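Q: Give me a protein?
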Amino acid sequence: MSFRLRAVRAFTLLVGFHLMGVALLSAIAVFDWLLMTRLFSARAAWFEGMVLTVTALLAAAILRGLFTFLRAGRLGPVPHGVAVTPQDQPELWGQIQAAAEVTGQRPPNEVYLVAEVNAGVAEQSRLLGLLPGRRRMLLGLPLLGGLTVPQLRAVLAHEFGHYGNLDTRLGAVTMRGRDALLHTVEVFQEGSTRLHHAIGALYIGYARMFLRTSQSVARQQELAADQTAARHAGRDATAAALRVVPVLAATYTHYLETYAAMGRSLGALPPEGEVHGGFRRLLAETGEQLALLSSGQRPPRPHQYDSHPPIAERIALIEKLPTDGRPDDATDEPAALTLLHDLGQVFIALESRTLSQEAARLRRLVMARAVADAEDWSRPLRVAVARALRSSAQGAGKTATVHRTATTEAVADNELPTLEKILDAFDRGLLWMAVADRMPKPHQAARLSGPSARNFIRPKVFDGLAGMVHLRLAESGYAKPDIAWSGQPGLILPESWEKGMDDAIDAAVADTPDTAPLRALLAGPHCVSA
């Protein structure tokens, strides 16, 4: 069956949906008229009143479904998007207008940048979608962050390709009818009477038939739009865009749950403009891994009523097209985000429209996360040194109780030693004589002794000293936050510390501790003594 015939059939079924609603409303009206004029009885007035109430509720539900379809084509506000004009972003609008022109379509009247891995063109149509109206395009900034310019051309041409022939007028109507049918079914499912469920069963059965019919129309539209995209942007760029979009969506979800939310426990947000803008930095650090994922990712199983054909099927059809001499080498092509002017301000504007008022009032995560991590690393060592110093001050007569209380003695925050006092304790020989025994360790490691015990605890002491150094440099203003998109967030240290800190701490935690190298760094120009 041709696409035109399938669209006509789906449109006919949609008209049937309205006729079924009109027929049910007519039946309810006739039933109510008979009840009031022929069957009314003073003795059963209460029962008849109850029946009229039920039929009125049923009629209201049917009318809601009918009006939903009539309003489905209206464009509402976009509170979570940033509107951009041709004057604001001429390069981006140039790509959009070129894609519209090549498909023989009108460009959108308005463009919004949103925080989604998605793109789409919507039209405020009239007369059930048969007459054109105002057009709006939504473009996801995370999507732009993961696409090259040729891949973006493919996405834009695909979206305008949905409107590329007259048959899509009927297709647009049928797609809009899906929402109306599903809404009506939901209304009846919320009903509490058996009559609600009985009539709802009629709509559910009709909806399934309509979805199966309209699905073939929708999928044919998608495949036709893919062909349009390949002609405009190139076969390889279109196939690459189809591969990378699902990976981008999964990566963006991971980004929101990890990097964007890394300061949640501290009640802090990433730096201004980085709540969504940090995604492009994550992609820059993990671009090679993303390319590998997109080439080998197994696509998710589609829903039985999904309007999109499987990704693998779409890619296979595109790759069957003849070579057009336009290979997609993502490493040589500019990123789609380069089309935007003043990118930092765009991300800041998007934050202001997507963050809740409560979230917008949170402090920005600049040093908070790095300082909190450094405090976590250093605290076990500081507590162990404090206990060792307390025990040493109490005298040698109480050494028999040291190991029993090594990990249970309470230490107040104001008793925690500074970095210099820790180094003094190491110089006194307390590291391996007293401090190491007071460091937390698993039960299995408690029996270790000699070199084995020292080698087990040495990395923890190293981390503790490194945390103390990070705190000192952060307090003195010589360290900067490093989000480290491909690793663990931390601090960027001065060059002298980056080169010499590891060796200096290694010397301080050696079997024979030597704190001189670390003290020399602390006395240098990029640190402030406590």
About this structure: The beta strands are 82-84, 110-114, 119-126, 131-140, 268-269, 363-364, 480-482, 490-492. Confidence is low (pLDDT under 50) at residues 399-408.
